[in-house]
Amino acid sequence: MHSYTFLEKILFFPPFWLNKQKLHSCLSGKTMLITGASSGIGRQLAYSLAHIPLHLILVARQEEQLITIKKDIEQSKAKVSIFRADLRNHEEAEQLLVFLHRLPDGLDIFVSNAGLSIQRSIQDSLDRYHDFSRTMAINYFAPVQLLLSIIPLLQQNNGHVINISTINTRLLPVPYWAAYQASKSAFDTWFRSASPELEAMRISTTSIYLPLVKTPMIEPTAAYKQMPAMSSEHVAAIIGKVLYTKQRTFSPWWLIIGETASVLFRGTWDRTASRFATKRRKRQ
């Protein structure tokens, strides 16, 4: 379990109160789909809901991890179905959708959590178009494909869609993250555009904008090891709270400072980022 330093706890990730009774009442008897469920946020969310009598449908590429999670959780109250699928593969996604449409009680909640992060310069990407296509495939096309199919199921049950997004979609873009930021921004824009229509269909929507989170996805990036990072347990609690409050957005309190700076100092940032990229290129 990742523990916060004193500064992280006080300034960046202050604690909040999770009403477990309301969460239990909200989710009992419901069916929830979680993508990217074999590790990180998805895995922690599944474990945090084990004590509630609901049906968890866990989707990920790593079947062995899913089997372990299923065995652990079903020792408690939740029922678990696992589905191994690479959602970048259209056919495997279609097979998941067939499974979902055969659920006897339909679907109540979709937590769109599966994602791919990549840091690479444009110079090193000249012969790696696949980095962009595969990142867009999982961060944008996959959740769109799933939602377009399951919206009728969610509408029937007055469902709820939660998008696990990133604060980067609300800030100025930074060098070396073009593939990741473009793909996450694409779905964030799609989801925010679709949300009023979904709300009109009696489907609640929530966008959760997260800072750096301590998960296996960030481990390959050495620079992240010394940076403040939110714990997956903290994120699971945030998701738990929005499940019963149905609030439309969640973001760290300090994000407004970054958003304001993004508007006021865009020109300054563009010049600074260019100088940073130039100096880094000269050192290579």
SSE layout and pairings?
Elements: H1 6-12, H2 20-27, E1 31-35, H3 40-48, E2 55-60, H4 63-73, E3 79-84, H5 90-101, E4 109-112, H6 129-156, E5 160-166, H7 178-200, E6 204-210, H8 232-245, E7 249-250, H9 255-264, H10 266-283
Parallel strand pairs: 1-2, 1-4, 2-3, 4-5, 5-6, 6-7
Helix pairs in contact: 2-8, 3-8, 5-6, 6-7
Family: Belongs to the short-chain dehydrogenases/reductases (SDR) family.
GO molecular function: oxidoreductase activity
Coiled coil: 59-93
Give the total of domains: 2
Output the CATH class name of the largest domain: Alpha Beta
Would you count the extended β strands for me? 7
Poorly predicted runs of 5 or more residues? none
What's the number of helices? 10
Major beta-sheet overview: 7 strands, parallel
- How would you name the CATH homologous superfamily of the largest domain? NAD(P)-binding Rossmann-like Domain
- Shape by Cα distribution: globular
Written overview of the protein:
This protein is of the alpha/beta class and 284 residues long. It folds into two domains: 18-252, NAD(P)-binding Rossmann-like Domain (Rossmann fold), CATH 3.40.50.720; 259-284. It is 49% helix and 13% strand. It is built from ten helices and seven strands. It has helices spanning 6-12, 20-27, 40-48, 63-73, 90-101, 129-156, 178-200, 232-245, 255-264, 266-283; strands spanning 31-35, 55-60, 79-84, 109-112, 160-166, 204-210, 249-250. A seven-stranded parallel β-sheet has the order 3-2-1-4-5-6-7, with helices on both faces. Strand 4, helix 6 (129-156) and strand 5 form a beta-alpha-beta unit. The longest helix has 28 residues, at 129-156. The radius of gyration is 19 Å and the shape is globular. The mean pLDDT is 93. This is Epimerase. Belongs to the short-chain dehydrogenases/reductases (SDR) family. InterPro entries: NAD(P)-bd_dom_sf, SDR_fam. Keywords: Coiled coil, Oxidoreductase.
